[in-house]
Amino acid sequence: MGIENEINENSVQDMVRRYKEPVVQLLPYLDWLKEHIDVSVSQNYSGDLDHSIHFPVYDSTLLSFVKAAQATGQMDRNWPYVYRRNRMTTAEDERRFIERAQIMDMADMFGIISKYVLSGMTKGNMWTEGVRCGSMYYALVKMRELLHFWGERDI
């Protein structure tokens, strides 16, 4: 009975049910992500003094996207394992993985988004890099495409 439950938990229908709502929560940001590929979405602020500390100031839409991504409950703190398992080290590797991804790879695509969202909490340039290289955009487009293919026509 345990194996049967495991099989049912990983059926295509279950994957669609599990990931539809998190993807839908992020879709409002799709156009913005596309428009900002190869564009900086932060600026360094240093104040008026020569001796002040420089810190990044982010686009408000980027901050809203990060907050929405965290609210999906799909951010994977173990994203480095996703990268090792799929042999991804560069943005080009991420794009190749996304291009060939199937419905059963939805968690790994959220792993790609997790890399940028979670790393950006401590390493400021990661949010900007995730938008600039397009990986978050391409992962979201692919997830929408897969959900649409497997029956979610209203996405």
The gist of it:
The protein has 155 residues and is mainly alpha-helical. The protein has nine helices and two strands; from the N terminus they run H-H-H-E-E-H-H-H-H-H-H.
Task: Kindly describe this structure.
This protein is mainly alpha-helical and 155 residues long. Helix content is 61%, strand content 5%. It contains 9 helices and 2 strands. A two-stranded antiparallel ribbon has the order 1-2. The two termini are 34 Å apart.
Task: Supply the key terms.
155 residues, mainly alpha, two-stranded antiparallel ribbon, 2 strands, disordered N terminus
Describe the secondary structure blueprint for this structure:
Elements: H1 2-9, H2 12-26, H3 30-35, E1 42-45, E2 55-58, H4 60-71, H5 79-85, H6 91-100, H7 106-119, H8 125-132, H9 135-149
Antiparallel strand pairs: 1-2
Helix pairs in contact: 2-9, 5-7, 6-9, 7-8, 7-9
Query: What is the count of DSSP helices, taking H or I runs of 4+ residues?
Result: 9
Residue runs with pLDDT of under 50 for 5 or more positions: 1-7
Mean pLDDT, as a whole number?
Answer: 88
Radius of gyration: 17 Å
Helix/strand-derived class? mainly alpha
